[in-house]
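go over this:
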Amino acid sequence: MTLTILATFLILNISLTGQMPDTISLRFERKIIAENSTEIVKGISYYKAPQKLHIEVQHPLKQIMVIENNITTIYYPIEKKAFRIKSKGPVQMPFIQSILSAMKDDYGLSDIGYTLTRSEKKGNTLYTYWDPPKEYKKQMGRFIIGIENGLISYSEALDPKGKTVVKSIYKKHMELNGKFFPLEIQSEIIEGSKKTNEYIIYSDVKFNISLPQEVINFSIPNSVPIKEIEW
């Protein structure tokens, strides 16, 4: 697992407890700019507590992804292809987990063993510095969170040598139960000399709604073979 993947895992895959929504639906747009290429992905996500996610990618291709616990099912309805991936550990939940994590007081860092080592105020922003748990110290470095007027505005993940691997800016926050989460996230991902910029925009966010029947009862047609993969 690369440092960048580990950093993304720690940013997004945070253990969640407390008063959380039972269901979430939202539309997303994700733009990735790397070197001379630009990729845009659009779709809609449905989340059901505690650990089920249904994603429908609508652009640039048709794709359905269902994540439940450590099983990821991917279905391409046009190509009539399907994959079922069984992972040994937790699976990240794209387009939803960052919202759930933002509802935690410390964004879940203490839940996964991070320790707050210091804090400092720069202008209107309070920066807190977190050291990784012992089991990650050979792969991960410090994690930094910036809070401005009570809202997360910045995060940065460093490698063990102190070099930045991911940094993000958070904007346009929305409130639920006194917690605020960002509707726009701009990230820079650094791997050696390569830099990738990622922009995520959420819209039409709804909480605690009845999910569509086609989501609740989704299943791959019997006529489509499913390729099993161990990860």
Notes: The chain has a mean pLDDT of 87.
